[in-house]
Amino acid sequence: MKFNKWTMGLAAAGVVSLASAVQAEEAKSAVQTLLSHTTISGYVDTSAIWRLGSGNGSIPGRSYDQGGGFGPVALDKQDGFNLNVVKLTIEKPLDEGQWAAGYKVDLLYGPDANVFNTASVGATAQDFAIKQAYVQLRAPVGNGLDIKVGVWDTIIGYEVFDSGNNPNYSRSYGYFLEPTTYTGVLASYRVADFLSVSAGVANSPSLSPAFAGAAGGATINGRSTVAESRKSYMASVALTAPESMGALKGSTLYVGVVDSNKDGLAAGFNKDQVNFYAGATVNTGVSGLSVGVAYDYVANGVTDASYASVIGLYGSFQATEKLKLNLRGEYASATPGTFTGSTGAPKGVGSNEEFIGFTGTVDYSLWANVISRVEFRWDHDASGGNRVINSGSTTGSGALYSNVMSLALNLIYKF
Prior knowledge:
The protein is mainly β and 415 residues long. The protein has helices spanning 5-12, 18-36, 173-177; strands at residues 39-52, 80-92, 101-109, 128-139, 145-153, 181-192, 195-203, 231-240, 252-263, 270-283, 289-299, 307-318, 323-334, 353-364, 370-381, 387-388, 400-401, 403-414. It has a 16-stranded antiparallel barrel with strand order 1-2-3-4-5-6-7-8-9-10-11-12-13-14-15-18. The protein has a two-stranded antiparallel sheet with strand order 16-17. The chain starts with a helix and ends with a strand.
């Protein structure tokens, strides 16, 4: 082992021993090797939203941009400029070894982080959360079994928390219904190039709002009061079209289910909440054009008989190297209180909640590493009347909702 002249001089003077210098150099080399395989990345997500028309009441079924403070955490972003979230990711991914090991940590800063309500921090609104923090391992089983232990993202959904990875800036009604993150063990296995499966078990979150999955409970070590029997069980299957399918190659079909035991929703309530998801993205064979479909169904979110379902249609067209157009249409149906927080029926109509949403997004790359896009969104109460929001009856004082239109600018710098 070679030493620099300062180390040799100190050793000659008896200040240090060559044995301790060897140990120090070995430790330094190990740290340098570890850091050489560690990556740091993230983004800064900002927005400006203008809600067309007067009023600033709550908007049902929206995530992170509700207006009026409706949802698991008050996030009033309408008619203003917003810092959404800053994300920092520190990761050592798995290598190709049979006994590979790695880790990943996602740290969130900013208003959107409060939705995760990280238990280890304490208070519920500190603009900080640990979104993911897991150890990843590979066992030499067949093609290789990959295992995550710790806190990891939900395995279902067409859209994700990171808005820059979604076709649209605002999240869908389906995203509103889905869990966000779990603490437990998740195993994934690639059966073949076209088929992957996963299965996991995790803590069932406590004190969760209706249909909000883990979003309303603690994301780290938060669990139902009877830990042995109340767990979340989940599984998924992913299919990818091979090259032999011609124009359809790369198209995907994904099906997943999560069964969680819930408590804290009401006195004595202790029932299974089941989230079912199916989604597909299809390459059409037309250059730059792809279409997608997503279906979410949730059972037993508030009572034994409650439900919610959302179907979403997506279209994406890469018009030029810099210009991309994304469209989304949705229809949502649910028992009262699911999207609105109101147990009362809309005035003069039936009891079920029904909403239609349309979103158009223009994504144009002007700067390197920057996602820059403009979005128009229209939400409509399809149940036939103005619905009272955040009120327990049809005569409450909550804001009235029938049609909401908004225009948003979203800028994200990725590093």
